[in-house]
Automatic annotation (TrEMBL):
One of its GO terms (biological process) is methylation. InterPro entries: Methyltransf_11 (IPR013216), SAM-dependent_MTases_sf (IPR029063). This is Class I SAM-dependent methyltransferase. Keywords: Methyltransferase, Transferase.
Amino acid sequence: MAEALWTGVAEAYARSFAGLCAGAIPAVLDGLPKGGRLLDVGCGTGELVRAARGAGADAIGVEPDPAMAAMAGTALDDDVVVAGLPDLPLAESGFDAVTANFVLNHVDDPRAGARELARVAAPGAVVRATIWGSTPPPQAVMWNGLLDSVGAVRPPVPRLPPGRDFDRSAHGLAGILTEAGLAVTAAGTRAWTWRVPAHDLWTGLTSVGGFGVLWRAQSAAVQARLRSAYDALEPRLAFDVECVLVEARVPRS
């Protein structure tokens, strides 16, 4: 269910929210061992893999959406395996570092996903994961304000059942990594400013994830009013965003 919201939107994501997620990459890669094997799970457009290679890692990516995997493969000049959590076609204990940048908040079974991150990581390896916290991000606050201003309907956005969901916080993410057998070594937040052209963000807001669900639920008249309200904004937008980042290690014994 959660993953289905991100299928078939590769081009729109690349123009919009890929730039948002890329803001966490420096923190995700900071201080990782040089020269080790790194796996990026849910690699999206391949930007984290590219940055990791630039920093000296032997990095590869896997991505569940075929169109996104093809896009990343072209950018990286390398094959990207089409696969996603919790079923990666990779041997256990094969990587010195495993990253999941905004992935565990978009899978159908986050705990099973965390166990798979642990499975493919070697003893002593670092696992780093990011998610968006429970506080609505500023781009969502902006979008919700526009929806309210034009009288938009609010259909329910698909959510995980309570038994599979987890608290979207540093404590909650650390908890599911601990349940997966990992030893959490750091848990906190990272902040940055995301700047995006309004026309690129519009592409994402009207197609990707829960934003797309809300857009598609509106009548043609409401969509037209929403577009007019959006066009009145600045041509380039800036949002002060924050994510949760947790680091854990695979026990050596």
